[in-house]
Amino acid sequence: MTDSGGQTEAPAGQIDACLAQAGSRVHLLGIGGVGMAGLAILLKQSGYAVSGCDTDPGPLATALAHEGTRVCREHDPEHVREADWVIASTAVPTDHPELEAARAAGLPVFRRGHVLARLVAATPTILVCGTHGKTTTATFITQMLRAAGRDVAWCIGGESDSLGAVASVGAGEATLMVVEADESDGSLAAYHPAVTVVTGIEFDHAEYFADETMLLDCFRQVIDQTTARVIYCAEDRHTVDLLAGRDQAVGYSCADGARLGIAPLASVPGTHNDLNAIAAAMAGEWAGLAPEAIAAALESRRLPARRMECVSDEGGVRVISDYAHHPSEVRALVRTARATTTGRLLAVFQPHRYSRTYRLGADFPAAFNGVDDLVLVPVYAASEPVLPGGRMWALYRHFRESAEGVLPVMADSLERAWYYLQRRAAPGDTLLVIGAGDVERVARWAVASGGCWGADAIESPPDRPAVLQPGVPLGSRTTFGVGGAGEYWGRLTTPDELREVLEWCHRYSIGFRMLGGGSNVLVGDCGVPGVVVRLDGVAFNMIQAVEGGVEVGPAVPLARLVAKAERCGYGDFSFLEGIPGTVGGALGMNAGAHGESISERIRVIHCLNPDGSPGTVHGHELKVGYRTGGMQGRVAIKAVLRPGERSPEESARMRSEFAGRRVWMKGLQSAGSIFKNPPDDHAGRLIEEAGMKGVTIGGATVSMRHGNLITASSQASASDVRALLETVRERVAVQSGVRLETEVELW
After folding, report:
1. CB-side exposure of 184: number of CA atoms within 13 Å?
2. Which residues of the chain have pLDDT under 50?
3. What superfamily does domain 309-456 belong to in CATH?
């Protein structure tokens, strides 16, 4: 039969047949994940020839390779050529080339959870399951049994310094096996343990479970198959209901701590972790440990990695990395961190899976109560295809509409989130790095920074041009009026100043951006790394007639070019009437309207190249396109433009007509057209057809007058505008199948 991921699921007997082949060759797809790495360890220690591959093997797979496991980066059908059977992570898609090659060769293909269930079936197993806390509880149980002198095997979905490995078959003939069982793919129901510990049940894994009933049925099945005892959290409603009337079931609560001699520890904070320790103690009781041995062992309990893990406190900022990705887990983490923080509580959160974000999105805002500054980053897909309504923008909208929780800012990437947080944090603050994906990279960057926070985070080379100022707000310099600060800002008045800045940026590989009139830019709330400059002064603002056309500086507003050319008889530029911005911006974006664009008027552009050297480019040499000027990083110093052939009277009439069409836009905080028109269509029509006119997120609104215009109120943030922009784009894609491209630049 076939599972929800499209993988072939073999009967237990077929798995047993493969496991019975001592020394057989097994290949693991997705070996870099903690669960797959744990299974690989058990298989190798049990005598099988193990190989595996992953697009990003990571440290666990690297450790396996050091121990003799063949680990390949990326995927190739050749990897399965020498295998006898194959195990695939649930993250592996149906059409994976190695899976297809394995099926074509007639090789058995299994899921991780089903193989692990059969591999441990011969050893009495303590199975730990539940929506939250299973990694910590399984780690506590294993630590306790080892401290009490028991030879124990384990396979746990989290790293722990105290255990040294995510899995082990034990030192000798292990008499007990501790397994953390994941319910996410339904394979929890494949286990037949001696003891099942249920830490609590809450709806999750919407990518597999259609509803709560289906999830509860999965837990019910493993409980039915438990042979000796079920230990469950009596403070969890779903678990209590599920275990009602079962003689083998024993509940636990915080009240049991005193009876079992389990005291809270400052090094393992949080009521939820006290409950996890109590569950471990009750498992120890079943295993026959003396009460004093249980209490002594759990007195030295330690959390696994990324569970309230303090990775750094250098520079006076405490950085905590945590795996929380469900609203209840986030709530417990924030509550615990808030209780131990005297300064501000900052956080970066990476949502995990589109399906979870879609189904549970409305529950997240309240979970962050107590956080002072929150950054949302894009959803970690975990192999899922994009789900409409399941991306970061939709989650942000839940925060904006909620009466609870902090109002977050959004970052396009982990790098931009770190850029923002490093500059926001100050001594006494705590930074939470939250999520089950690769958001832990932010924690690693924090460690590598050596405690460099706030103003100290800006370390410019010693020869920085005097014209550049650090940390200057940019939002007020744009027509949207929203957004964060630039790392460096400069208002340049001469070509020599521009050359000096370009040379400096080139020498130290510092990013460089031009901000003209700010009429076609949305600056993100997290700010802009690198240098942002605006050209000003006489040299960049001149307009004069020359042989072959009109010579004009890049800082000249288009409105001034149109008016002066008409007044002085320089020729017709009426098609630029009403377009906001400057000549430099128009050249960079190939601005235009009414069937004409500025690239058609370019004779020659005198410029500076990205390294500051002088250059000249003729109009016919530019590779222009729709809203693409083809400047390739060059910065215009001046340009010679060919005027149109309309008479002064016709030019004046056309200019008046064009101005009349745009008069309603005067005074609006907007950037004009948000999206480019798709071929043979209009973005505004598609947006209106998708029913997006008048839709609002926070202080940003889609205009009722024109669908391709977003306005920002005085209460708007850049995240409001970006969330609305992306919501519009997603709705249009769903409605018409057209993915709109932005005309506005997203910084």
Report:
1. 21
2. 1-9
3. Mur ligase, C-terminal domain (3.90.190.20)
